[in-house]
Each structure stands twice: as structure tokens, then as C-alpha cells.
Amino acid sequence: TAEYRLTESSATVLDWLGVIRLERYTDAFLSAGLQTMQECQQLTPNQLEHMGITLPGHQRRILASLNKTQSTQEPLSVSPEREQQMVNMNPTWKPQPVPRELKPEILPENPPIQVPRARPRTLDIQPPAYFRNDGDDKASPISPTTISNKNAPPLPPKAGVGPISPPPLPQRLLVESPGTFVNAVSSLGGDLGSHKESFYSVITREDISQQSNVIKKGWLSKNPPQGALYYQRRWVRLDSDYLRYFDLEKAVYSKGIISTAFITKVTAVGDLKFEVVTSNRTFIFKAESEDDRNEWVTALEECTRGRRHSSLTSPLLSDNKGYLELRGIRSKLYTVVSSDKVFLYKNIDDYLIGVGITSIEMNVGSVKETDRRSFDLITPYRVFSFTAETEQLKDLWVDSMKNAIGEALSTSEIAEQIWEEPSNSFCADCAAPKPEWASINLCVVICKQCAGEHRGLGPSISKVRSLKMDKKVWTEELIKVFLFLGNEQVNSFWAANVPPSEALTPSSCSEDRRRYISNKYRQGKYRKYHPLYGNQKELNDALCINVQCSDLLETLSLIFCGADVNCSTGMASCPTPLSLATTHSQLLQAELINLNLNTEIIQEMDPPHYQPSPCVSHNGFLFKIASMARPITESKNKEEFSRRWCTLNDGTFSYYDSDKNANPNRSLKMSEIVCLVVDLYDYTFELYSESERLYLFGTTDPDSHKEWVKSIAKSLIPAAAEPLLRLNFERIGKLKYKDGLNLQTSKVGWFALVGSTLHAYLGSSRGEKIHLRKLNELSIQQDNEVLVLVEKGRTLYIEGERKLDFAGWCGAIQEAARSGGDTLSEQQLTETDVPVIVQSCISFITQYGLTSEGIYRKSGVNSRVAALCERFHRDARSLCLKEGEHQVDDVSNTLKRFFRELEDGLFTSEHARDWLTVAAGDLENSKISQYKDLLNRLPRVNKATLQALINHLYCVQCFSNLNQMNLHNLAIVFGPTLFQTDGKDYTAGRAIEDLIQHYIIIFEVDEQQLKIQLEEINAILEMRKRNTKFPVTPSFICTVYLEEKDGTIEQSVQIPGSMTAAELTCEVLDKRKIPFKDKEYWSCWEVCDKEEMERPLHYQERVLAILHSLGTNSHLLIKKHPGMDGMLIYLSTKSDASKHGMMKFREERSILGLGLSSGSFHDRYFILSSNNLRMYREIRSNRPEREWPMKNLKVYNGIKKKLRPPTWYLCCDTQSEMKEWLATFLSFQYDGNVWPQDGLQQTRVSRVLPDARHGNVSLIPLRGSENEMRNSVASFSQDALSVSQSANHSG
């Protein structure tokens, strides 16, 4: 055969791209004027991106190949088969170098998607030529407003992309038969010493599946390693790239792989054996028959023919390679990340000769970092735990494997095509950029967040598919449908009547998305109604007429306004609209109809909150008592029960005098039942109805009881909350609730109480768990009609719509929230997993007992200690330790007794002996290391409690000059207490002494935070030294800054619950001895550093509520109000109370993943009244675009970079205009009382009255730590200002 030889410097782009299997980009290179490989040497990633090569893996493959060719000048041999293949792929290609001056071929324009035709006016079916001869393109007779002419010029070609249809798959070198394998590259060489790879050495590529292109597979016996005498039975599989052998037929990961490119010879060697020979290894396999052996030899010879590799060159173009430790393997493995796979080799030598262990397909993998140098590669079949040599190398490995996963899953060609329609590059529901999902039957392109809510509608309403992962779904016709319509046109139907207040933004919460998407697609609330809406026959006829032309939008409108896609056309040859569209060659119409053959008709009425429950049937005898309107408070005698025949069928529970009676005594619809209560001990259950009646039933055996409870619960609970049925619940039912910032409207949720956990389904398919023993506060408010559950960062309000079942829920939840036993995990816990009793005692002693001499050594009064222990055990959260009412020694002994009587102990019975063994050692460094190891073995609650206690004891011994409790004295007291020993030796004390002494190292404490904590304790002691008596009411110590945030001008101030902003201002100024001057308006400001905004607190505003709402990057600042004087003058001269005028408006829109704002300012006309703020598009507008209640607005100064929605900005032209708006805001919000008439009184707050609304929260030193501040619910129990729904920024 003739060979055409070409040096790399003159290699054509087509030759080069063919070798690295990226022929699809040939046109992109030619369009850019690049015709030879030499001209491509200086390409950069940005240039490749501009050429249309966007996939990161393809960019890396091209650049790596260019870099490696600079040191390689080996000529390329192109076989006649490959030459013919290249000619077939590109007829203009000829086997000679392309002259440099040759101009690139001009690419033809993309053909139009589909030539639109006029819609016929009758149902008469004529040959398709009838429509082709009709040159007029007339408007639709059905919907005059619909534009049927969709003719548009063809889209211009995009560099490297080609036509709109999906790009052709690259040609594979392997054809159906192994014998037709084409020699891609032959006679290649390399240099082992330099470890350089020529781009011609790339053999494996596009097909990522190990199972694909399997040439032969079966059982063989393989020669064992190290020359053992017996053979090992292996499942062997041969594909175009590798010969792989496995332990089992179903195994996913092989025991070994041999690259076919490195197989030099395959020989039959007698006794059913054959040899597979590489450059320096020989593998012997034994078949089960002579014919099987011959088939293997033939298949291997044909597969490897022409693929012989140089012994010094690796077949893989790697993205990353090197040694990694794999858990479970003694030695390190040489690991190679190549394109969309990860290969494992025993060492680098095996890698260079193409003999490995296994390969991992990354299209099913995910990467998770587990340690400083470790990470896991997780697949459905195995978890590979790797460890790199350094943290930096670990990061490189993680990045390269994530890139491999991205390349394995990436099919962004389809997304790029869909986005060529400009409106498709933004979500049809929330306008988020670059949406990667679509509802293929609704014809909308949507973002990931909206796609999740679309799935909640069900496939009968919205068929959600990915633009990047569901490649097979995206046929050429479907892509053309989305390009033909586009989100803008489709939304002219779906979103024709969306109120501005209901529109979504990219930052909208999931609840808003769910409501909007359900309204839009399930109920069709915003759609543009068709003129024929409501007339079924007319709609069906119009659909049959319209599918004969190209007006897809009209078809979409007809279908989703009620036209039946399965209606009869009345003609035998084309009985359905689908066949009618196909007959007239309207492929896009046929595609649209086909996608909606089973689409659910839009519901006209609001759907129920939950889907109805499935029908359940059950019957049998039960014992019941007469229904009552009050809760059951005592056990019932057996004589009070009567035997009744009961049935449950079709959602109705009925009971009869006997099983022979036909008429029931009473029937209860399950939709009227609101709660089911189960008593497992008495085999009874209670049913609560909406009519405030309680029905008690019982059985005689546990099996019957279980079946009845299961059946009733299944009929009661909707499908959306079905997981609740799998719980061993004590109480289950529905309640109204409010949560988040929207406290105006109540919603219905389904709840189940299991032990100390409240499971809830709050209007979504995702269940939630509320750990009742970890609540910050649990209280009943508003005349026993609202149960308030406060946990970290959230408050849930459960409303009592019915008194009877609500009283039962309140009692059960309160009982479940109490301590349930004597182990640590059964105690009421703080959000940091420390028992409330421990935190309360530590806080009390920190404030009142640090200077008490002999603290923890002196005994308290035993009766008072026992009473405290009992109260803490009953409900630790409700007990507030107070100075004067409780004694320091009583509290300290309560804490010690708690630990001594603790079941299983603080160090656990399993590990306590190990702690004492370590304490008996002599080597300090070794002991510290062992302590840290033992600490990590403790349960989560034990570990958190131990750290809190040792932190407290560390602080106590820091003040040993006052309390005489040094390190040794504390160890003597707490050693036997914590280890629950008799104290005869000092081993337990030595352990506690070590933990206190090395607290910073063992618990890895931030020394700066510890220093701040000690400074705050000093501040408390200083205040007590000055005889500043702490109030009995709950209070906090907080750092307040003066004029600017600077450590030199900060002031620690006690903040009682009723302190106002004016009182705090006077307190700080008095401590700093700063006098008032005339026209100086000193105010307290809430300052948010991260968001760059500030807000002056109204002088009557409660400070403690604001304090609890602050984040870690916020603080309180006392400074002068620069604009108050002008604002007061403006208000005094203002005749009209309202305010109106033009302002610039911008609503926050954050670009997902970037944290950047995408909104822009627009001129709007505003009217501010005492009730609300209205925004109009212009002065002449009659209806406002938006409206906000005045009482729910917070006004901030400055511009915030990133803010949680709902957020919007107002911008005034001048400072004076801004002051006028701010003054009007404050005047309306505080009924004209903007500033006290007599000015601030420069007096200290001598006494503050208790504020019962703040709950039982102990005094804890604070510096704005969010975790500590969330321990109170003051910010949730204030007026609407503290839970405002909107934040307004003026700047």
C-alpha cells in the first residue's frame, strides 16, 4: 500500500484533529484561517473560546497536544483506509500540505429551520402540494392577534458550531466487525527519558462506556502472578481499546487492563492456551475449547492490527497523573486522569507500557473532600478514598477529577443551540441567566431552581428535561420547536397577565417559586385566553386546522386552553391532529402534539393544598366510648366501652351496633378528621374532628390496633406527606402555621410527633425535623392560641384553629421537649448540643460566682440543691437562675450533682478507663495526642459538654487570686465527680488537670476568642465591683462603639429587655463623660459592615430585639445624626402629610453563582401615605406597579452589595430630597414622634422594669456572636418592625 508521509510542522488541521478525535472543530479552525498545525502553536484558551470551542476538556486536549508536538518530529503515516475516511468526512481534503496562502473555505449559511406556510381555513385535506402552491401567507382566522408568519432569515453560522441540528458524532475507527478495524496511526516512537508524548500517540477517545463496542467476552483461565501453579478463572472482555479481566461477570471494576495498542503479538500455544505479548510482559490465557481459543486469538489479532505502539510511549493524553494512596492498598498507585476517565496503575512503568489495574468512568462519579490531604471519588459501585502527598496536590487532583466529571456529563452543544434564540438564554419563569433545563411539553427553558418546582407539578403537567444531560431526548425537531418559539413568545401566552407583585426574580425563595409555577402552569392563572375558550368543539376544529400550517404558538394556545389533542378529525385517512400534521409534513407541529398527548388539562379551580389520599378499606370490631368535647384526662374503665362494628371505606369511617346492621350509628369523613392520637399501651386511639369532638376507640390486641392505626393514618395523610406514615408516631394530624418573614397568612402543615422530634411537612414535599429538646424557646402566647417554637435562626408559630386538638398538641409537644432521661443525649440541649442545665449553671456562676472564695468546694444547702435538680430535670428551659433568689453554692453543687448522677458518665463507661490510663502516663506530648484522640471518640453531645465545662473551669482558675480555686483545687473537686470514682487516688484529678492546663491545644481553641471572653468576664467583675447591681430580669452584656468601630472607643453595656435606643445612648455618653450640646442629635445606629449599610434606631425602639437580629458582621454604634435637624425643620413646615415624587428604583437580582447584581435603576413615581408606599410607572399611571405596607418597612442608608430578598433600592437626586423622604417615612411609622420634644435626657438608666415577653434567657456576655445571640426570642416577640418583610435602601 502507498503511504503518504507528512511531518508534524506541515500537518494539516484535519489530520491533526482526526488523530485527537476532534474532527468536529475542523470548520472552526479553517474559518479562523488556521490550516496547518504549525499555525496553531500559539493558540490560547481565550482564542479557542472565541472560535466556538467551549468544552474545557476539549480545550485542554488541543493545547496539550500542541505543547507536546514541539519536542516531537516523528513523521505521520496515514494508511489508505484512514485517507479514504478523511476524504469521506471532507471531500475537499487532499493528501498534500495545504499552501499557507490558500484561503479557508467559505461555510454555507445554515438552512432555515422550517419554511412556514399559511394556515388553511377548512378541514379539507389536499395533497401537500396544494399548500406549497399557495403563495399567500395569511393571518390566522381563529386568532386575529396571532402572527402566523414565522419566516425569518436563517441564523448566521457560529464559528465552530455548524448548523442548528446536533453536530454529527465523530467517526469511530472501530467498525462493526473486529476485522474492519482501521489503522489510525502506525510506526510511532517516543523517548522514555524525557517522558514526552506526541499528539500522535492518542488512541483512546470518544466512547466513554466500558461496555460499548465490546468485541468479545467470556470466561477464561489466566496465568497467575509470581509463577503459581494454578490458574485463576477470570471474566474477560475485549473492546477496541483494552483487554480487561474481572473476578466476576457482573463486576464493574477490573482486576487488570491491557491496552490493545501495546499488544505486540497474540499466539496459540497448545492445550487450549494462548499468549498475549506486550513489550516486556506476557499474559497466558486458557480457553474452554479449541474453537473458543481460536476466536479469542482472531479477535485480538484483528483488534490490535495496525495499533502497535512504541514501547516507550503511553497511550493516554493525561490531564493529571502521579502517585496517590488508596485506602486498602499497601503501596501507592500511579493514577492518571484522562479526559472523562481515571486510570489506576501499580506504578509508572506499568503506565508507560499500557498495563493497568482498572479504569473509572467519571460520568457516574462525584468527588468529596474528606481531610486536609484526602478525598473520596464516589461511584454507585465503590468509594475510592485517595490521599495525596500535600494539600496543594490534593486540590489539583480534586480539580482535575471534577473537570473529568464535567466533561463526562457535558453535552453543552444542545444548550448552546437552544440559547441561540436570545430569549431562551434566560429562565422563562424567573429570568435567571443561562438556564440548563426545559419543560419540553410546555416549551419553556427554565433554570435549575424552577425545574425543581416543575417536577413537583408531576410529569402529567410538566415534562422536565436537562439541556446538558438528557441528550437523547433532544431530537432535531424538538430543538427546532424551542428555537422557533422561544421563551419570549411562549410567555406571551403563559405569562400574559402576571401581576408585578407576583413575578419571580432569580433570587426568589422556593415557596414563591412553587406558588407562581403552580399558578402559571397547573391553574393557567396568567395565560392569555383564546377567543374560542370554553367552546370545546370550536377549539378542536381550530386545532385540526392549525396543525396543517406552521404556527406553533397558536397550537400551544389551543392545546392549553382546552383543545383535545386526541380529538377526531372526522376523516379516515387522518383520524387525529397528529396524523394530520404528519400528512402535511408539519414535523414541528407533530412534535408539539406528540409531547402533549398525555398532558393533564389545566384545572380551573384552585387545587387542594395536598393531593387526595388513596382509598383504604378496613373493617372489624372496636371498643368505643361516647364522643366528648373535652380532652381525656384519666384512664377509662373497661365498662365504659361498648363494642361496635367499624368500617373504613372510600375515605369514610363508620361504626354500627353490630356487623349485621345496614345503617351506621355515625359516619366520619376522613377529610373532617384533623388529628390521630395513638396509645400503644392501652391499645387505644383518639380521633379529633373539625367539629371539636373527640372519639376514643380501642382494641384487645396489638396487631389489630396496629392495622387500624395504619389504615386510618393512610386515609388521613395526603400523598405529599406520605413519609410520615413510616414513622412510629404518637400523634399525627394537620395544623395551621406561620413561619419565615411572611406572618400575614397562615398555611396548612402536616405534623407527626415521634419521641422528642416533631416531623413536619410544611407545604412542600420535603419533610423537616424539629428537635424539641434543642429549642431555644417553647411558649404559648396570645391567650393560649399560638404555640411558638424558636430554634436556631427560625421561629415557627403553630396556631390553635380548634381548641380541643390544639390543647392536646401543646401538651404533647411541651412534654416531649422536656428532659427524657438521665443520659446526656436525653437532656434539653442548646443549639451547641450542651445540656441546658449545664449552660444555665455555668452562665450563673460566670456572672455571680467567679469571685466567690472556694467556689465548687463549698457545699450548698442540700434541700435547695435537690429542688434545683428536680426543677431542671422537669423543664430546664423554663428555669431562670436569678441573683438573690438562687445562691452560688447551691448552683455549683447542682452542676456537680448532675455530672455525678449522670447515667453512663460524661466520659462514657466504654472510654472512661482509657482516659484514666492516659492520665497515668508521664510523656506530656504523648498524653496530649492521646487525649485528642479520645475526645474525638466521644459522642457529639458528650464532646460539646466536656468542652463547655473545661472552658468554664479554665476561666475559673484564671481568677484563682480571687476565688482560691487554682488548677489543682479544681482537679481535686471535678476528677472524682466527672469520672464517678471514689477519689482515693489522684488519677481522675490528673486527667482533669491535664484537660484544663492544655485546654487550648486539646480542644483547638482560638486564643483570640478566649482572650475576648476573659476580657468580657473582667468587664462583668468591674461592674460588680462598682456595686452596679444586675437586674433580676434577663439581660445581656454587649459591646457598643462610639462614633466609629475602634477598639479604643468601645464600651461594654448591660442591655436589659426594656432598654430603648435613647436610654442606651445616654448610658454610653454618660460613661464616656460626653456632655450634650445644643442641636446635637446623638442616636444609636445599627451598622452592617459586610452589607455597607446603616440605620438610625428610633429613640423608643427596644435595643435587645435589634441586638438579637444582628449578624456576626453587624454592631451598634453611638454617633450624631447629621440629618435630624433638617428633617425636623422639614416636618414642622410641611403642610401635606403625604409625600410624592420621582425616585430611581432598583430591585435586587443576583446572578446565580456569581454574587453580582443584575438589576438596574429605573425612574418611577412614588406616593407615600400613612398606610402604604405605592410605586407607579409614571405620573399619569392609574394603577400602581407595586405596593408595600408602611409599618413593615425598614429604612437603611447606604447601598448593600448582597442582600436577601425581598430587597429594593431607592435613589434620590439630592441629599435634601433624600432627607425629606426619610423624615416622612419616620413620621408615618412613629405617628409623627420622630424625636423627643425635650431632647434626650442625659441621665443613666438606673432601673428597668421586667419585660415578660423576652422569655427566660440568662445573662451571657455577648459581642455580636450570632450563635449566642440566638438563645433569646426577643427579636421574634416584638412588633412587626422586628420581623419586617422588606428592607428599603436609600442612598
TrEMBL record:
Gene Ontology molecular function terms on file: GTPase activator activity; phosphatidylinositol-3,4,5-trisphosphate binding; zinc ion binding
Per UniProt, residues of the Rho-GAP domain are 827-1003
Q: What domain of life is recorded for the organism? A: Eukaryota
Please report the stretch or stretches of sequence annotated as the SAM domain: 8-72
All residue ranges annotated as the PH domain in the record? 213-305, 317-406, 615-717
Instruction: Cite the InterPro entries for this sequence.
Output: Arf-Rho-GAP_ANK-PH_domain (IPR052227), ARFGAP/RecO (IPR037278), ArfGAP_dom (IPR001164), ArfGAP_dom_sf (IPR038508), PH-like_dom_sf (IPR011993), PH_domain (IPR001849), RA_dom (IPR000159), Rho_GTPase_activation_prot (IPR008936)
SMART domains, alphabetized: ArfGap (SM00105), PH (SM00233), RhoGAP (SM00324), SAM (SM00454)
Gene Ontology, cellular component aspect: cytoplasm
Could you tell me which residues belong to the region Disordered? 130-158
Q: Where is the Ras-associating domain?
A: 1034-1123
Q: What is this protein called?
A: ArfGAP with RhoGAP domain, ankyrin repeat and PH domain 1
The organism encoding this protein is Oryzias sinensis (Chinese medaka)
